[in-house]
Amino acid sequence: MNVRPLLGLLVAVALPLAAADAWANPDEVLTKAGCMACHAKDKKLVGPSFKDIAAKYKGQDVVAKLGEKVRKGGAGVFGPVPMPPHGADKIGDADLKTAVEAILKS
Description:
InterPro entries: Cyt_c-like_dom, Cyt_c-like_dom_sf, Cyt_c_ID. The protein contains five helices and no strands. It has helices at residues 4-18, 26-32, 50-56, 63-72, 93-104.
């Protein structure tokens, strides 16, 4: 039995699904992960606006640093209200990177 056609079909179906996080729309990622419950693009809610975050870290290579801060949570950088940790079950690594990069471009 020739399995090549079946293998090709599996790759054609599985590859886009596996890469979906990498091609995700940043706004969808931010909403799906729950970021928008505490943050807004241009005004302070519970947490700082994405625009304020981008301004604070402008010109710095902080994608990994901010990703770690999202994972571990934190407080004190933008005020006393703590940000709870957001594990990989809440937002996957690829989506986290997409979200942080989008925030820094705000």
